[in-house]
Give the backbone structure.
Amino acid sequence: MRPFLCKIFSVISAMLPLCAVAADTASSPNGRLQLSVDVNDNGQPCYGLTLDGNPVIKNSLLGLSGREADFTTGFTVRNVATATHDGTWEPVWGEYATVRDHYNELAVTFVQERENGLTMTVRFRLFDDGLGFRYELPEQEPVNYLAVMDEATEFNLAADNTLYCMPGDYDTDEYLYATSPLSQVASALAGYRGRHSESQAIDKLTVQTPLMMKSPDGGMYINIHEAALVDYAAMSLDVDTLNYGLSAHLTPDVNGVAAYVQLPFNTPWRTVIVADNACDILASQLIYNLNEPCKIEDTSWIKPQKFVGVWWEMFIGTQRTWAYSDYYKAKPGITDYSKLTPNGRHAANTENVKRYIDFAAENGIDGVLVEGWNEGWEDWASFRKNRQFLFDKPYPDFDIDELQQYAADRGVKIIMHHETAANAADYERQLDRAFQYMVDHGYNSVKTGYVGGIIPRSEHHSSQWMVNHYLHVAKRAADYRIMVDSHEAVRPTGLCRTYPNWVAQESARGGEFESMGGNPPEHTTILPFTRLKGGPMDYTPGLFETRLSYYNEGKTGQALTTLARQLALYLTMPSPLQMACDLPENYKRFPDAFQFIKDVPVDWSDSRYLEAEPGDYITVARRDKHSQDWYVGGVTDENARTAEIDFSFLPKGVDYEATIYADGKDAHYKDNPQSYSITTKKKINHKTRLKQYIAPGGGFAMRLVPKK
Ligand code: NOJ
Ligand code: CA
């Protein structure tokens, strides 16, 4: 936590004239963004950023303080180095086949000119779409090892921007977003509660990143996050509602230390994506550009995929269970699993899994996720035992060998589930055995989970120790050629560029909440501006039966979506790993709509954001990486809207035939979610302009195939 004194200091210093004359300046390649860097009267480094001369970040302090040394004040500028880079790289998967990495760099070295004075370089990179900077602490005489207590980094805003935000919470990001002027954020977040009992670490004047903002006049969009979070604590932002200020707030450990670092050390990049229209925020690749190139040499085994799973049936109130027995009801603390009596409702049984495999094989779906296959679910997160799950012990009714053969014969991959109940320590102990067990049984993907309070017990989901854990798992998985989809892990920061086997994460409120009160339609119009800037989300779209009463007359809950919107999510929430989350029997009820899920790719060669407004709507077009087909999808919030699609992105001289999956005229996310229409348009080309109606809480999806 940021010490109180430090807070006072930053309030006072915000009133002093900082960086009156910039010592150094730099601009983005197109010249629109201007950065200024200086030291203030206390010798504290500071910076400011403008777009077309308008302030984005007013003069803001830099630096970090450690237990052994303080890298905040007493500095002068010793050296300034500039560089320019313009290159491209090819992601293994993603929204684009090629990404341009074009920036001007300013590396400013600050020194304390005294005996035992410290040295620190702040490296700034200015792209056309924003700024990244990080602290680089070289190996040096005065200190070589540092317990980082606090980061002084500020982002002082020029106005009372609108925030799309959730409260600071060291353990979860599974919240809905509040939309509020910065000055009112305390009341906007007043109703939020911490979600992890042992770590009620939730501060209503702290917000999480990626933080999306919009200027009061609507002319500027800003996203603040971080890139390449490695060996460091995640950053949240303290809000100064009087001065429109934001300042870094690092997740501490039980000793109040954010990170233990050995010098030389580079912090993660602090990122400010800025644009004068919302589409450019969505298109920005800045966070990936600030991550290291791919470190996996042979990536041929990393395969984007769609999957179904033994999953949703546990959420819909039909009493299907992850657990094999009901033993926990009688007596918690199981030691002997061989004595369990089956409850008859265990979903991950061999016959049921075969049903999903058959369905996947029949429909060209690559994978089948199976949750609840292994011992430990009877009392899983309840008692926080030092050993809960075993990752090589299937329940007796899950025949892993038989299923391996069955899936292989049908060309389907089973996706392993490793729910750790947040016992990361024990997961690390079992990791090699667990991965070897996967390899031995033909698995090449794992969904991990960290539900509950972390073990080691003093740690948080976003603390340095856990940040290191998730990356360790992803790297180790790569050694075994395993792809990872982590749930309840720290919010991503673009590391999937470096480790593309880390194909997706949850790390936000996903589709599962449609069974627990629902995700209001605006949620999925905000996530692409926030959570998705760090990497793909395993959101689990594809819900066709939205009412829980369909399964159980007594239930009243429902998902807050139309059916057509669920198709649109495959385009507006891009991921190389996309679930078709509903039950096979529901897809069989709507085979014509399911056709879209069968067709839609999960890897793209190009993407064009056509219309967007955070909290309101998104329309995007994408080109399949493996064909000339284009797809267009759009979603709205709870209000109906008409998307205006300008097809000028299509290549000239080619006509396309479009299949359009749209909300019916009478569709509504609450009252009539399953009203949809499927129509074809015989000729669409780069001159076409099309109006497409979207129902309240709805969406549309199109497939465009070039005509022969
Ligand atoms: C929470 C995950 O997000 C969900 O997908 C999973 O089914 C449960 N935990 C159980 O692991
Ligand atoms: Ca979750």
Notes: The pocket of 1-deoxynojirimycin (ligand 1) is lined by residues 311, 371, 419, 449, 451, 487, 506, 512 (CB under 6 Å). Confidence is low (pLDDT under 50) at residues 1-21. The chain is about 15% helix and 35% strand. The longest strand covers residues 76-89.
